[in-house]
Amino acid sequence: MATNDSREKNSPNRSITASKQKDFSEWYVQVLLKSDFIDYTAVSGCIAFRPSAYFVWEKVRDYVDAKFKEDGIENVYFPTLIPEHLLQKEKEHVEGFTPEVAWVTQTGDTKLEERLAVRPTSEAIMYENLSKWIRSWRDLPMRLNQWNNVLRWEFKHPTPFLRTREFLWNEGHSAFASKEEAEAELPRIMGIYEDALKDTFAIFGIQGRKTQKEKFAGAAASFSFEHLMPDGKAIQGPDFHHDEQRFSKAFEISFTGRDERADYIYQNTYAISSREIGVMVATHSDDKGLVLPPNVAKVQIVIVPIYNDKTREEVVKHAADLEKRLASSARILLDSRDEYSPGWKFNEWELKGVPLRIEIGAREIAERSVTVCTRYNSTKEKVQEESLINGIRERLESIQKEMYNNSKRSILSKVRKVLTYEELKLAVEEGFFAQAPWCGDEGCEDRIKDETGAKATNMPLDSQQDAERKSCVLCSRPAHHIVNFARSH
Ligand SMILES: [Zn+2]
Fold first, then answer.
1. Residue 443 CA, ligand 1 centroid: distance in Å
2. Whole-structure pTM over 0.70, yes or no?
3. Of the four, 56, 261, 319, 487, which is 20 to 30 A from 465 by CA?
4. How far is the CA of 217 from the centre of ligand 1 (A)?
5. In terms of residue numbers, what domain contains 393?
6. Is 149 part of any domain?
7. Residues forming a β-bridge with 145
8. Phi, psi of 325 (to 5 degrees)
């Protein structure tokens, strides 16, 4: 492993050779592998998160977990294995997952009496217990969450983060006494996810409701964030589902109300997954490599001292002093390795996506200044050392904000309002969200998908009033919804 690694380090092939614009898929995989962010594993469709990738997930998990707890959500943990009879309880749910479920059928040499599913999601295993834990209105609301991994054995071409068979996520499962209380949870959770996308990944998503055809298997209504990838294909972000009483009836989770009458609980589920890491990488990175937002970068600042034999001692000492002074405000690394040239180091840390690079040499020391290079926009400026130290937090925050604003601008510029089917086809062909009025008939949705390859990503929450007095983009009957159609990953 070590031998291979050092050989790779000295090889010029380590730079990205594919173009983001011209060959997105090849570029994406090269960025992930060459920056030491992930690796493939012996299991097809399953990746290893290397330290800088897992650091991103830890930051996201910590951020979301703290917000959940502030909101009164409690963490639990349930087993990875789900007995088959439990998975069968909710019909639509099991039908949605059956093709992707992996089964444990024996232990040692003994065949199991009942097959155990490796969880594709945990409704079935959790709700069996909820039926025992919830008795009366006093037990409600019960808002539980678990951080775990799930396995969905997809057969489509796997892509790191975007479509991996095993991924990491949060599974929120809430129980309420009434439909109104369950509905009130939607904006709270979507608000937490919206903040998380902004403050961790620095990516924007369009919030909307899923069509009945595209909703989660077993849910009554699903809501999502939708992103647009650089190749013009949409990809779904975090989601939220109103399950109403579908699962509570299947799993017999009932309670006695204040009025002494028995009723089934109302449920919601919601998730954010490690797929977002892929969306983040695809959104921000460039032909030089990875670009990480400061809030999730394991190394936020790298200092590269520039010296010759005469100045080495002074420059490295000064750089170490600067490192010490910045260390309380940022995750910082001083790269004083003698065996690599400054140019080699610049490439290395650009490839790995470090948000800020500080160059310091004898001339800068004499001027009490440093050269600061910002990774996401490739700018280079000379800054007084004191002002850099005093303003380092603000500098990192403003990079985070600007990267988010770029993502937001870029996605919104790719939404095109269309009124005719010809316009819809063209917009989809050109890699846009085609925002179209729709009658609500699944027949129209199916035909659009068959003929253009575009699916209904979601119905943006802030655009639904536009459907008034408009006609369905396909059949010309009165429109009831506004839908963003796009090809998708
Ligand atoms: Zn129609």
1. 7
2. yes
3. 487
4. 24
5. 299-398
6. yes
7. 75, 172
8. -70, -25
